[in-house]
Amino acid sequence: MAKPKIIAVVGTRPDAIKTAPVVRELRRFDAVETVLVSTGQHREMLAQALGAFDLAPDHDLGIMQHGQTLADMTRRVLEGLDPLLASLQPQLILAQGDTTTTFVAALASFYRRVPFGHVEAGLRTESVAEPFPEEFNRRAAALVAAQHYAPTPWAAENLLNEGHQPETVFVTGNTGIDAVRHVADQTALTWYPDWTGRVVVLTTHRRENLGAPQREIAEAALEVARAHPDVLLVVPMHRNPAVRETLVSVLGGQERVDLIEPPDYADFVKLMQRSALILTDSGGVQEEAPAFGVPVLVLRHTTERPEGVQAGAAKLVGTDKTSIVTAADELLAAKAGSRPSSPYGDGRAAQRIRYLALRELGVESPMEDMWTGFKRLSTE
Ligand code: UD1
Ligand code: UDP
To answer: What is the pLDDT of residues 186-208, one digit of tens each?
Structure first.
């Protein structure tokens, strides 16, 4: 008899980073076949992220285009995924988070009546329009999910409050924390060995920040660098041409500002560890930085990750220049050295998801003590 088949669908950099630990964990078990499908929503950044886990897609729809619109991506991913699902005939489909790839993977699973497992389920803001379009994407994915793998108890509560059945909602931790641990010590790179001062990192790419808000973010970061002569501002630039245009026009050629290509995942983790402060509108970076005790200013008006803010590891500052500069000044004046701790997971999320996903297929696998000491909602 053929083995049950699980398809993991990825498309973007965070999809790759947060799904890779699950794929690696599932592949340790011979009882199922795990197929990695890329929509190719991202190209270089996806390959780079999967590379950190020695993974490459088994199928790649290769849909990326410069200037791609949401509607166009949605159409092309659906048109590519549907025939692939028809030919591969999986028993379970997994995808993470809130990207267009994930939304369409959930929709395609629903149309083909294949159970869908949602990794990083239950994150919510109060408005379906922010972040755009991610809040819609994750709510839509939840509508059809057979299993919701919530990273935190708060995320699980959100799902229960929306009426999802308790026996489908599990607190697993965030696989992003598994990913950080996987790449720890994978690179020998030392960032800026000759710079004795501090490093401040800026990343920005959110669709709702493109244009004027992003210009204001870049201007704020420049002001921070100018006000602190011991600060080197390092800006790994997302590959979106619209993002680069703004960053280069404000920060290009400035003293103590280094605009760089997006580093490989392991190198980027090292860069976060080297930094005194991170300014970001990224979801994943917000989760990872507290694991190193590096403070984060979140360049958004709302966050679906309140745990870091509540733990005092992150502060929501929006995109207003004065707010960003004031908050950064405060943190740079404070004594360094908050203790590393992550509200987002303990590095064993992929094991929990593997156990639950296999159980969905009727395959028992070891559970060991993976819920011991871990706040759980339901496992059985
Ligand atoms: C996407 C996700 C967002 C996630 C982000 C992570 C959606 C709607 N958005 O946003 O949730 O936070 O990824 O980075 O799913 N590009 C390249 N090479 C790459 C990747 C991107 O050139 O490897 C350029 C292309 O010109 C592309 C553009 O970036 O058109 C934007 O990519 P897209 O996936 O549409 O949006 P992101 O802002 O990356
Ligand atoms: N990241 C990376 N290289 C970079 C910037 C980010 O490997 O130059 C990693 C980061 O550690 C995190 C993920 O990419 O795991 C976040 O991706 P991004 O900010 O693009 O998306 P988001 O998390 O906002 O959806």
So the answer is: 999 999 999 999 999 999 999 99
DSSP 39-86: --SSSHHHHHHHHTTT---SEE-----TT--HHHHHHHHHHHHHHHHH
Given a cut of 60, is residue 379 above it in pLDDT?
no
Domain 5-174+345-360 and domain 193-333 have a common topology: yes
Q: How close is the Cα of 285 to the center of ligand 2, in Å?
A: 6
The DSSP symbol for 167 reads G
Please give the average per-residue pLDDT across 354-380, as a whole number: 80
Ligand 2 contact via 282 beta carbon (within 6 Å): yes
CATH class of 5-174+345-360: alpha beta
Residue whose CA is at the smallest distance from ligand 1 atom 30:
66
Architecture, CATH, for domain 193-333: 3-Layer(aba) Sandwich (3.40)
Is 42 catalytic? The answer is no
Contact residues for 81 (Cβ-Cβ < 8 A; gap 6+): 9, 37, 39, 61, 104, 105, 108
Give me ligand 1 centre to Cα 42, in Å: 6
Residue 100 in contact with ligand 1 by CB distance below 6 A: yes
Is residue 67 scored above 50 in pLDDT? yes
